[in-house]
């Protein structure tokens, strides 16, 4: 039995709006109008969708 993967591009299924990204080089530090979007993985770790910096709230 094989688990087939879809051919769709990776689109975050679950995004959450949290606080500012703690990566000083993140684009959200410059583009203040961008929503602070994070994806939460199965371990409960949130990562910035722009730079994948781990969010520690
Ligand atoms: Zn970021």
Automatic annotation (TrEMBL):
Lineage summary: Bacteria, Bacillati, Bacillota, Clostridia, Eubacteriales
Alphabetized UniProt keyword annotations: Pyrimidine biosynthesis
InterPro entries: Asp_carbamoyltrfase_reg_C, Asp_carbatrfase_reg_C_sf
Domain Aspartate carbamoyltransferase regulatory subunit C-terminal span(s) in chain numbering: 20-56
Protein origin, superkingdom: Bacteria
A UniProt-annotated Pfam family: PyrI_C
UniProt key word Ion transport: no
Protein's recorded name: Aspartate carbamoyltransferase regulatory subunit C-terminal domain-containing protein
Organism: Allofournierella massiliensis
